[in-house]
Amino acid sequence: MASDTLRAGTGTGTGVGGGPPPQVQNQHQTKPLEKRKGAGSTSDKPLDAKTLRRLAQNREAARKSRLRKKAYVQQLETSRIKLSQLEQDLQRARSQGLFLAGGGAGGSLSSDAAIFDMEYARWLEDDHRHMSELRTALQAHLSDGDLRMITDGYLSHYDEIFRLKGIAAKSDVFHLITGMWITPAERCFLWMGGFRPSELIKILMPQLDPLTEQQLMGICNLQQSSQQAEDALSQGLEQLHQSLADTIATGSLCDGSNVDDYMGQMALALGKLSNLEGFVHQVLCTYIQWDLTYCKYCT
């Protein structure tokens, strides 16, 4: 009987100490679920007019946002196409020697312009050396043969600067004609990448006395022909500037609304600017011819 009592007590203790009966557990577990469902569910509640209006406004705002995003993406794609075309035009201009990188004060130089500046600095050092050698020879009263050798070396030295300018005219003509490679004082007298031969004759004439009548007449004729060539080249360059201005004035190059017209105007303008290289080469030929003729009259 005692054992039956112990078994009965053990069974009762298991029910108390081991947890509530299954029915009680299910009741405790279902109550929170019912509470959560009742608190978070709105399916059974009808939406009022204010909520419906707010939902409609949110849907309309989302639709407009999608439209703006689509328009923005289309604008980016159009801008990308224009940028690609401009890069192609810029690359074409660089290949034609029309890059303006060295044209502005404070702007970065193109590689060709930087090379020309270094070569010109080296040429100036050689020029000072040649000039010092020539002065020393004149003071030493060397023979005509020795003086001839020195002057021939000086002429070859000037052939080098003409060669350098010819290369610069092909690679970066704007850097050459703007005179960013010379001093500001020299820039005041700059003419198409150099100095006017007729003005150089005016400067040198007082230093050439005495001259024979034949030499004087030859130098005067050279000055007159140089002036005529300068006027013709200056007039041609002015016409080129006017033609370029007229091309730009026909339509705004800054307006990218019509890409075809824009690219056509850009190509036409670049084509006109390519003639600038031809003008510079004509000037270099004038310099060389003037140099040889001037030396012939002075010897």
TrEMBL record:
Residues 1-53 are annotated as: Disordered. Keywords: Coiled coil, DNA-binding, Nucleus, Transcription, Transcription regulation. It holds the Pfam family bZIP_1. Gene3D superfamilies: 1.20.5.170. One of its GO terms (cellular component) is nucleus. PROSITE patterns: BZIP, BZIP_BASIC, DOG1. Residues 113-299 form the DOG1 domain. Residues 48-92 form the BZIP domain. InterPro entries: bZIP (IPR004827), bZIP_sf (IPR046347), TGA_domain (IPR025422). It comes from the Eukaryota. GO terms for biological process: DNA-templated transcription. It is found in: Nucleus. The keyword Nucleus applies. Residues 69-96 form a coiled coil. Its main location: nucleus. Belongs to the bZIP family. This is DOG1 domain-containing protein.
